[in-house]
Amino acid sequence: MFGLGDGWVFSAYMLCIASSLLCVVYGILKWNSDGETEKDPEQEHWVEDEINIEKQL
After folding, report:
1. From residue 47, how far is each of 18, 24, 27, 50 by CA, in Å?
2. pLDDT tens-digit map of 1-54
3. Tally of domains in the chain
4. 12 lies in a domain?
5. What are phi and psi of 32, to 5 degrees?
6. Which pLDDT does position 38 carry in this prediction?
7. Is residue 9 part of a domain?
8. Can you tell me the distance from the alpha carbon of 55 to that of 24, in angstroms, rounded to the nearest whole number?
């Protein structure tokens, strides 16, 4: 089997290649996403408060 000697070694190599391909495909699909799925109104309130506090300092 390609001179690897054992089926477990071959499967480990194949899993490494498959996982790297999966990571590349995931990265291509998520390349231009902004990272935020939806905005939480409560979180926006905290952000506004934090901005106002920083302005006062």
Report:
1. 41, 34, 29, 5
2. 567 788 898 899 999 999 999 999 999 998 887 766 666 666 677 778 888 888
3. 1
4. yes
5. -105, 15
6. 66
7. yes
8. 42
Q: Which two tokens stand for residue 47?
A: 């952000």
**The pLDDT of residue 45:** 76
φ, ψ for residue 39, nearest 5 deg: -95, 135
> Are residues 4 and 10 in contact, defined by beta-carbon separation less than 8 angstroms?
yes
- The answer to whether residue 24 sits within a structural domain is yes
| Residue with the two structure tokens 């990265």 | 27
> Is residue 21 in a domain?
yes
Report the alpha-carbon distance of residue 12 to residue 25 in Å, rounded: 20
Structural domain of residue 12, as residue ranges? 1-31
